[in-house]
Structure formats: C-alpha cells, structure tokens
Design brief:
Radius of gyration of chain A: 21 Å
CATH superfamily of the largest domain in chain A: PurM-like C-terminal domain
Shape of chain A: globular
CATH class of the largest domain in chain A: Alpha Beta
Number of helices of chain A: 11
Number of domains of chain A: 2
Oligomer: homodimer
Helix content of chain A: 25-40%
Number of strands of chain A: 11
Order of helices and strands of chain A: HEEHHEHEEEHHHEHEHHEHEE
Distance between the termini of chain A: 67 Å
C-alpha cells in the first residue's frame, strides 16, 4: 500500500511547494533571509525601530471561503486573509513584516493551491509584507473534496512611542469611519443562509436592486487600510483604531474604549450600503443583530482629535477611499447609537 | 432571524474567549505586553540577542486530529502542535518567543476548545513560549459537528552567529538520531487506514503484541527537542538539524545537506519501535514507503562532529531521552540507507 492510496500525495505536495516558491520569493524584501522549503522562515529584526514591539495576529476568512468553492475563484480568499490580518495589527500602529498561511485541504489540487497562494502573495506585496512560508496540508478525512480552510498569521512591528493601545482616547474625540468594501470577512454564515436558503438565489444570480451578482458582491476583497492609514499613523494623528470584524461596530469599538468612556454613533452620518439593507429585509433581521454581525459599511474606525478630521478625510479620498465623522467619544460606558 | 439560528453563537464565542484568557495569561513572560481580546498580541523584541533573526513557522497536526474526535481527548493535540512548531524553528537554532493558534470548528463547544487550548498553553509553558493569542472560528458549513482543524504559528529568535543553516555541514560529520515518542504528527492518514480499515481495530482496542491501546500509541504527544538541544545549541555543538516530519528521514535530512554532500543511514544502528513494524506488516507497506511516510523512531537528527557524540548522548539520556549515532555525511548526493 502506498500513501497515495490512503489519500495523500507526497509528490503533488512537493511539486506544489516548488511552484509556490517563485510566488513567495516575489514578496521577499531586504530583511528576508530564507527561501521556502527550509523548516522555518527567517526575517531580520529591522534595526531602524526604537524600542521595537512585535505585533502578531492569527485569523481566518470564515465561511466566505464557501463562495470560493461555489465559484471556483480562489485568489480573492488569499487576498482577504492577508488584508484582514494587516488591519488587525494596524490598529495597534504596527506595519507588517511577514505573513504565513495555513491551508488545510481535502485533496491537494495544485491549481487551487496556486490560486490561493497567488492571492496571498499579491496582497502581501501590496502591503509591503514578506510571505515567509506556510503549511499546505492534505487532510482527506477532515475536509470534503474541493473544500479547504485557510488561516493567516501576521507579524508586524511598531516602536513603543507609536504603539496605539487606547490609552490616548479621550472624551470629545471624534470617530472617523472608513468605508468598507462590502461584508469583508464577517457575517457570511448568516449572509449565505439569507441569500441562498431564504432568498433562493445562486452565486451567479443578480441580487435584486443591486445590479451585481451574488458572487461579485459577496466576494469583494476585504479592504486593507494600510495605504490610507500609514501616513496618519506615522504623524501620530490617530488616538485609537478599531477594525470592524465579527461583533460589528459595537463589539469592536468597545475593545478600544478606556474604562469609563463610551461612544455614540450617529446612524445618519453615513449611507449604509444597499447589500446590508437587502440582507436585513431578506432575512428579517433586527437592526441590533445586523449591527452585531456586519460592518454595515464601516470597515475601520479611527478615534481622532476633531481638528484632524478634515485632512484625514481628504487624504482618504485622494487614495480612492472614503471616510465620515460617524460619532464621538462620550463619558458614558458602552457603545450607543443615536 | 438571529446569527445563532444560522449556526454561529457569538455569546458562546465571547464566554470562550474569557475562560481562555486565564490560560493564556499563565504563559506570559517579561516580554509579553498584551492580554487576549486586543486585536493583535504584543511582544517586545528581546534586546539581549546580537543581530537578531526571527524564525517563524506554520503547521498543523494532520489527521492525528481524528484520534481526538474518536476519543474525546483534546489536550494532547494542543501539545502536539506546539511541540511540532517548536522543533521546526529549533532546527535553525532558534528558541521560541511566542505562539498563536487557529482553531476552526463546526460548532464551538466550550469544553473542547478549553481542552485544546489547555494543551497548547501547557506546552507553551514547558517550552518557555508565550501564547500570544489566536483565533477560534465557528464554521458550521465547513467542518462536521464535533470536528475541527488546528493550526499553529510560532515565532522564535536566534542571533545571526548561532543561526543553523546547513552551511557548517561537512563530509565525515556524524548523524545523531534522537528517539521519537511515536508517530509524532506524520503519517496518520496511512496509519489510521491500516489500523482501522485494514486491521479492523478500534481506538480502544489493544494493538496486538504492543500491550497498548490504539489511542494510547497513536495519541502519544509529539516530542519537543528543545529541552535536550537548547544547551548543545548554546555551546555551538550542533552543525545541522533535521526535524523528521512528513517525508521521513530521507525527505527531511535532504533539506539540510549542502550541494554535493550526501548521507548514509545505518538501519541497524537503532531499534525501530514495534508500532512501525506492526503498521508495515498490517498494511503490506514497502520499507521505502515506510521511510518516506513515518519517522521510524527518529524524531530529530543532529549533524555533529564525531568528538561531540558521547557527551550529546549522555546529555540526552540525563534528560530521559535517547539518541544514537545512526549514520554520517558522505561526499555523494542524496540520502541512502545501508
């Protein structure tokens, strides 16, 4: 009996590692020391950061991944996981150093793995992040044929003086909401249930009233806020940052509020993108539940001095992004809507 | 409709995060700056390492995880993934700094998550590694009920002068094989197929001739070689290291051989543990395939000067481990057996 007969193909794994090597090498920077195939990836600690702190995060893309299985489009999932991770360390003021991925699959299909890793590698390049390695594991008895899970792991760096930890957040600070590109990577179990089971659409159906297909809308790549926020962060114009993921605005903004402070969000201050209204109506979901599950059009919230808002908004718009003043920090506890 | 009805329980996720927090905090060290619940984990770059290089690795535990589902024992899988990752960076001379995990589940069962993370946290403590955070994701449409996948990410550090990259490996160097504790985390798709499908055993059956149950043998924790190798590494007594994982001795030793050098392994130099003989006979597997899929009783190979061998072997035995001279570096290419 050979291992292949039990469902694991070591030769395919080896070929896959080789073709991925080129993609990975394209993300290397001056600090990258190793090539793929060594046991661990090597990265020099940058010497130009005073009191350096490493900021690290692990994440997945949730059941957004099911859209990739449905459509056969796999690179966008790779981009999603990188951008998600970049945002998660950005909120502490860190810029990315390197990224690793874990890809568990039912069967190692080289074309699928290449597409996922192509997306990962391209997003790494866009975020000035080295793709240092990763693991591709064939687990035939755990994942169904054609299915896989993808986890990402990022390490970034910030000097202690530039660390954002919420301690600078004060009453009267303004909440600047940055536009999301769509659902990002949260709420997909509910969204898929509403779209496919309740509304009876398929991935290539046009969403009524949206002029876009289900796949087009639901597979829009999770936006990286690094390009928009890297300059303001370097000028210390940001007092706090919340990446709006699972838990929505209330759940994530709460995490950056110092004890005794609260936040009020003005619902009328930005236009909730149509997809969220369609999901809400299609599924009969309460607004409270919508707020907790989805980003509702706001992918990142910056806590800033009021005097900074106009230049931050202009700067975002110059980079093709959008931002609005959506609320403020108050002396009450918790996150409330008005 | 609530998110819970679509299969995701945000309250359970929140409770789970809180109970895990204590476990995670127990692994904190002087460099750990953040608690669980912030977006990214924070870790100060240690200032006592000259020319510091970060060494990072991502890995999974393969289908060994299916044994956890069968038996309801989940902490050992947590220990497996940490030790596996520790070994993967140890081979480049690095000691662990911090670890993050990704746990994707069909349904978030708090008892299961706690047990997995307890194993992760305990192994992190044993390896002087901070558990900096992680992601627990409920993906009801991807994993079957009661099933999950577990990925680990580790970051370690090594000074450039102590980096092991194979460049010091020379003809005539001796191969020191360190005993594995069992299958570690490789070859489980084949092993499970042979044990359960071909031999018709169940997880609580005694393996004939072994005096141990299937679960006891197959769930033995992947050994960490940090305790045995940290001193020899600090004294620069090691020229090269290969962690014997998927690909076996040939596949992994090859990765540390400089161009033009080879290795000869003497099969008679160590006793292959009975479980591998039982798998080979039970499955009718060729010895070449066995060598490529399983570690065959050798979990780590150190390339050393012959003069170092006796003190390294004594030192391993003092720590309750075992090691044997199992071969040498030759001027031929490739890894051969005699």
């Amino acid at each position: 009996m050979k291992y292949r007969e039990a469902g694991v193909d070591l030769d395919a794994a080896e070929r896959s590692v080789q073709s991925l090597g080129k993609l990975v090498q394209s993300t290397a920077d001056a600090y990258t020391l190793s090539e793929i195939g060594s046991f661990g990836g090597l990265y020099k600690v940058p010497s130009d950061v005073a009191d350096p702190i490493l900021v690290s995060s692990a994440d997945g893309v949730g059941t957004k991944i099911k859209l990739a299985f449905m459509t056969g489009v796999h690179d966008t999932i790779g981009r999603d996981i990188v951008n998600h991770c970049v945002n998660d360390i950005l909120v502490q003021g860190a810029r990315p150093l390197f990224f690793l991925d874990y890809l568990g699959l039912g069967k190692l299909e080289e074309a699928v793995v290449s597409e996922v890793v192509r997306g990962v590698a391209e997003a790494c390049k866009e975020n000035n992040c080295a793709l240092l390695g990763g693991e591709t594991a064939e687990l035939p008895d755990l994942y169904s044929p054609g299915e896989y899970d993808l986890a990402g792991f990022i390490v970034g760096i910030v000097g202690r003086a530039s660390l954002i930890d919420g301690s600078r957040v004060r009453e009267g600070h303004v909440l600047l909401g940055y536009a999301s590109s769509g659902l990002h990577t949260n709420g997909y179990t509910l969204a898929r249930h509403i779209i496919f089971d309740v509304m009876g659409l398929s991935h290539d159906s046009e969403i009524p009233g949206l002029g876009k297909s289900v796949a087009e809308e639901l597979m829009t790549v999770h936006q990286s806020y690094l390009p928009v926020l890297i300059d303001p962060l370097s000028h210390n114009s940001i007092e706090g940052l919340a990446h709006i993921t699972g838990g929505g605005i209330p759940g994530n903004l709460q995490r950056v509020l110092p004890q005794g402070l609260g936040a009020v969000i003005d619902r009328s201050s930005w236009e909730i993108p149509p997809v969220f209204r369609i999901l809400q109506e299609g599924g009969g979901v309460s607004i409270e539940e919508m707020d907790r599950v989805f980003n509702m059009g706001i992918g990142m919230i910056a806590v800033v001095e009021e005097t900074e808002t106009s230049s931050l908004i202009s700067s975002a718009r110059e980079r093709g992004s959008d931002a609005w003043v959506i609320g403020e920090i108050t002396d009450g506890g918790g996150v409330e809507y008005k």
